[in-house]
Specification:
There is one protein chain. The chain has 200 residues and is an alpha+beta fold. It has seven helices and four strands, in the order E-H-E-H-E-E-H-H-H-H-H. The protein has a four-stranded mixed beta sheet. A hairpin with a 5-residue loop joins strand 3 and strand 4.
Length: 200
């Protein structure tokens, strides 16, 4: 059986959990507490020398890491990853966007507020995360005004990658009410019959 090493409140880990549920694949969840340093112990570092979650352990013991790479592995050959080169590249385009223009700001603001309780020394960084996070949401809003999902008419791993932290952006102080297309998209993703919530 597949094993997922992760933190249930982590958006990056939620990507993998949601993908597994959408594909109806059985798995074992192994809880890892980052704040207690569990990603830095020898046993975990043997699975991911970079010391980060999530990690997907395959049946043969092979370990895969980096959430978007895991999404590509799981979605390969399924409806969630287009085979047509242009569409497949657009999926990758949004995954790179998530890692470089979205997650570093939306997820970090959430971490500062939810996990750290807004320490004084990180308030300037928190405000900067909001400026850059809203820039990312404006880019998403433009696309979602044109298409129901980020890559055309079908749910793909591009949506899963960006849904993970977008749907809990309020926990980082983001107000998404100015983005009605994003709001409709969030509801669309959550309406999938095999959807599972972050804390379910």
């Amino acid at each position: 059986m597949l094993k997922v090493y992760g933190d249930c409140r982590s958006g990056n880990c939620f990507k993998v959990k949601l993908m597994l549920h959408l594909l109806a694949l059985p798995y074992e969840w192994v809880a890892i507490d980052v704040l207690k340093g569990e990603t830095q112990c020898d046993d975990f570092l043997a699975k991911n020398p970079n010391g980060k979650i999530p990690v997907l352990e395959l049946e043969d013991g092979t370990c895969l890491w980096e959430s978007n790479a895991i999404l590509n592995f799981l979605a390969d050959g399924t409806e969630y990853l287009p085979s047509e080169p242009r569409l497949r590249t657009q999926v990758l385009q949004w995954q790179f966007f998530e890692q470089y223009s979205h997650e570093p700001y939306v997820a970090v603001a959430r971490f500062i507020q939810l996990y750290q309780g807004m320490p004084e020394e990180r308030l300037v960084e928190y405000k900067e995360c909001h400026v850059r996070g809203h820039k990312a949401f404006k880019v998403m809003e433009q696309q979602l005004q044109r298409t129901p999902y980020l890559v055309g008419d079908k749910l793909s791993i591009a949506d899963i990658a960006l849904y993970a932290y977008s749907h809990v952006a309020d926990e980082g102080g983001f107000d998404l009410s100015p983005y009605p297309a994003i709001g409709a998209w969030l509801a669309r993703v959550a309406s999938h019959p095999r959807y599972v919530g972050m804390l379910d």
